Amino acid sequence: MAQFAGKNFTRKELSERVGSISQIAEVTRFAYQEGRAKGLEGISFRTGSGLDFVVLPGRGMDLGIASFRGLPLCWLSPAAYSGPEYFEPQGDGWLRSFAGGLLTTCGLTYLGDPCQDEGEELGLHGRIANTPAQHVCTWTRWEGDDYYLHASGQVREASAFGPNVVMTRTITAKLGEAKIFLRDEVENQGFEKVPHMILYHINLGYPLVCEDSELKLPPHTTIPKDPVAEANPDYASFAAPTYGYQPRVYYHMLKNTEEKATITLTGSGLKLDLTYHPGQLPNLVHWKRFEQGSYVLGLEPANCRVDGRAEERARGTLSYLKPGEKRCYELEFAVSAI
User: Fold this and answer.
1) DSSP code, position 74
2) pLDDT digits (tens, 9 = 90+) for 14-50
3) Nearest to 254 by CA among 233, 276, 232
4) pLDDT tens for each residue of 92-117
5) 62 φ/ψ sector (left φ>0, alpha ψ -120 to 50, else beta)
6) Residue (of 338, 181, 175) closest to 264 by Cα position
7) What pLDDT digit, counting tens, does each position of 249-286 carry?
8) Total count of domains within the chain
């Protein structure tokens, strides 16, 4: 049944109380009008549960700002939203158009630290988050007494005589539930095998992230990425915004890869559960930056690490997509008050 205002309703009962279902929940397409974001398309989801969020078709169908009962869940960078025409692929140029938001996708054929791999210069974190989607569609539907909100689109990473990889993303929410369901299907539509690296860069911010926040992981092993993380093994600690805080990255490998796993973050009376399948995404990259103004926690399920494609190849862990091969990835975000 549809949930709203603390009550359960049938479709008939809810329809009797509103002139249009958009009074309670809706999906709305719009475009930004100013600055580097001018012309960038957005899709606004209002779920009727207190969870509101934006999907960005002009940026790989990523998730922008998200809030629950008026409180933001994610971190936004000073770079803010920008159109794909501002993308700088060389070196760390990706950061100049990194807006943060609830989800920035990295990949699809490379990501991580800039490097040179088999003669190819690769910048930070890949191209997909700066690639506009095509065949974008929004729709709503009643299924019995449940009302669903959807958006979908296809994002292609391709070049003449090179890779031809397509990601089809579908985002679903349900009236009265504070949840986001994301499903990706990544397909190699070319005729040669191609490297495949994908990472879901989830950027959580204040007030969910605060000095009193708590992070809970299922049973796992942890490897620090660098000397800073190695010198600070307490990955689950939080701090107030701190001048000179040294960012750190950890790799978590969940021990049970046969079933879906849930990562839980609580803070300031909010709770976020991130659920995914570690069999699909075996590395959970954990990124902590608690500097002033860069106060963000990254939880990043991935099929690789973030040392760059050359290092992934040298380690023998680089994943490939065969011609015609498809991979599916599913993530669920669930928010609640505690």
Assistant:
1) B
2) 999 999 999 999 999 999 999 999 999 999 999 999 9
3) 276
4) 999 999 999 999 999 999 999 999 99
5) beta
6) 338
7) 999 999 988 999 999 999 999 999 999 999 999 999 99
8) 1
Residue 209 has φ and ψ, to the nearest 5°, of: -95, 120
CATH of the domain at 331: 2.70.98.10
Which of these, 270, 284, 266, 295, lies nearest to 331 by C-alpha position?
284
Indicate the helix (H) or strand (E) that contains 291: strand 283-291
The residue among 263, 253, 206 whose CA lies nearest residue 74 is 206
Tokens coding 191: 């005729």
**DSSP-derived secondary structure for 108-174:** ES--SS-EEETTEEE-TTBSGGGS--EEEEEEEEEETTEEEEEEEEEEEEE-TTS-EEEEEEEEEEE
C-alpha distances in Å from residue 58, one per residue of 12, 79, 105, 126, 184: 37, 16, 13, 16, 17
Q: 168: domain range?
A: 2-337
